[in-house]
């Protein structure tokens, strides 16, 4: 057994941090005028009810914030179940977190909106003892809840108490989207909390969704990159001719967040009220504001084919980003977007970007970091982007849930495409047939993911149901419902899922991008040449979905092999050694790059990460599971603070049992959990750069305008 030294890698990405107000969100969009938004991040009071079987009912209607003790302090955002600095093999607590803070009312008589970028798994919220809503649609997606004026302090600038319950126990009722999956599901208020002031009169200008015009992936497209955009102004509080704060859940009730309000209110004599006209201005890239107007349908004003002055295309080689500032009624929202068009080459069925056939290369990426777990610092995000660039990547698949908007901002800036998918590994046939409950929340989660990520230029695909039951025809309507929702909301991206049933998949008629998971040379003795056969089956229509795959691009969504970081100097290249890992991964990449029927490859995984193989059956009854005391024997305990990490360095494993998940960790990363490179990293980087022509991170830094 050897101890491999830590090899630091240079961080050359320069992320733009200019023009953020001290307490404003450090991610897009930006707000101005009377559109006041500030973060409630920082020190909160905290309590924890420990135990998966504590008997505490998080949905108990009689529970009040006064019943919840919060004797401690914690930081928001953070993970309430991170232990041992996030290292694998240590069992984190499952239970209920109770969080308490205060905020000042923006103005007397005004309502507010609370946006949680994530609250995991199940979340319930009270303001001044009044419940304002809950959220069941997954702990990794953003949602918003409205707080009416009469729930707030009557004095302008008065203090208000915000109380949040977060339950990280697997439970099909409180956390239906957390069906399991081979990774640790973190809990708590893991991302930022925003406080949005709401105008007393007129609607709230919530967001401006911006997508390139004439860019539907399944339609005939013009040549090249787009130069115009379709804009949807999302107005909250609009109900025909009446203004009323509503729409992100019934006020004061238990309903979850929804979309902007529309409706057909009745005027005198029962006749429908005329649609009101809204007046606003548009300004691109800080330029001259142009007056426009429009009517709202379903709470949204839609504009199509709006030309972008001095339009510049977005691509991995030149990730130019534009901004759009919308001003209305004293409010302004500035969104950032990119002009690019995804499509399919008719001759080859290959994926195209701005009309050119592209080969996508990269990795899957969970949200796990040393010390902070699923609540990384800006510097940790920057470091991983720099490593991805050093690795020659132009693709990241967001495993297995919606990701942090700060991460998506950086991918936009770095020119790295992103596959965005909903939480849901281990979805069952029964789940897909449960239209009264599970699918309601699945579709809500998908809508919320699209709401939060639609403006990100890097996002090229909407996905769901990782390794789901696609080999069962009775599950296909659920796949179809997700695809129909995504296409209706945003036809400019591909619809897809990572399918481990491969040629047995029966639902590919609902995908516009076909993607397979397989691990030749790792979970089987098959040669990586098996990918050639899979690609041929898709192209020739010989899967269980028949002709529904013909003419659609195909990519490898997962493949790879494990390698224990410390096993780099072994006498034989046996399984779990770094030599074996490099050999298997190298063959996978070679096949993907050489086959003209394969549009891309995302290796599993970028770095080693903590697992919880018990999933929704947690805790593992009658067996220790993958986390409980299975960690390595380390040369020193895993650091739990950045100061410890700087002083002690990452721990080295001196002994480990090569089980299914050695040391409670998935070792398929080309970096270890502490971001130390394995030999496969440099090997893959060289192959990726040769295929795409991307410069190394040492050749150029990214400077964002």
Please give the radius of gyration in angstroms: 25 Å
Poorly predicted residue ranges: 1-14, 238-265, 698-705
Identify the strand order in the major beta sheet. 28-27-26-25-24-32-31-30-29
How many β-strands, per DSSP?
36
Helicity range: 10-25%
Model description:
With 705 residues, the protein is an alpha+beta fold. Helices cover 15% and strands 26% of the residues. The strands form nine sheets. The chain has a nine-stranded parallel sheet. Strands 4-3-5-10-7-8 form a six-stranded antiparallel sheet, with no helix packed on it. The protein has a five-stranded antiparallel sheet with strand order 1-20-19-16-17, with no helix packed on it. Helix 1 (378-390) packs parallel to helix 2 (405-414). The radius of gyration is 25 Å and the shape is globular. The two termini are 48 Å apart.
What structural keywords apply?
single chain; 705 residues; alpha+beta; 9-stranded parallel beta sheet; 9 helices; 36 strands; globular; disordered C terminus
In short:
The chain is α+β, with helices and mostly antiparallel strands. Helices cover 15% and strands 26% of the residues. The chain contains 9 helices and 36 strands.
